[in-house]
């Protein structure tokens, strides 16, 4: 028995085993490379064979690898956040968050008795349901500001202007005459 056997294609295979199609293709490629090298051609630097570039090379690779890439899909929240940052929408988003999540920010006790009215020049105007609640909110103003800063960020609200309930207005209609008005209605 010899150490070579015959391949189904008719070629002798060293080692005595019949080769697969992969082995035949690999052997044909090696022979083609050897003949190209013998002819003085550069072998192994074609488009299909990646060239190893040193780190820090200025040329950028044109295919996506295993690591994260700027072309990879991004989470929606990150995209919206970067869009808001780029367009300068962060203060308006923070204001909307403050008004929309007032209950979660200050808690149910305060939210049941006070509501935010407006935000002008980093001053939040809060209206309490009674003068007693307005006084109580003034005592805990620092804690409320800390909760707001934790929820929407620093430098959005710097102070609070807390007011009690609005007094009833006796004005009727758009036109009004200045002065004390009628005084004989109260007896």
TrEMBL record:
Q: Which InterPro entries does the protein's record reference?
A: DciA-like (IPR007922), UPF0232_actinobac (IPR023007)
Q: Residue ranges under compositional bias (Basic residues)?
A: 50-63
Sequence ranges of Basic and acidic residues compositional bias: 23-34
Renumbered residue ranges of the record's region Disordered: 1-79, 163-187
Q: Check the UniProt entry and state the signal peptide residues, or none.
A: none
| A Pfam family this chain is assigned to | DciA
Question: What is stated as this protein's family in its record?
Answer: Belongs to the UPF0232 family.
Q: What's the protein name? A: UPF0232 protein GOACH_15_00790
Q: Which organism is it from?
A: Gordonia aichiensis NBRC 108223
What lineage is on file? Bacteria, Bacillati, Actinomycetota, Actinomycetes, Mycobacteriales
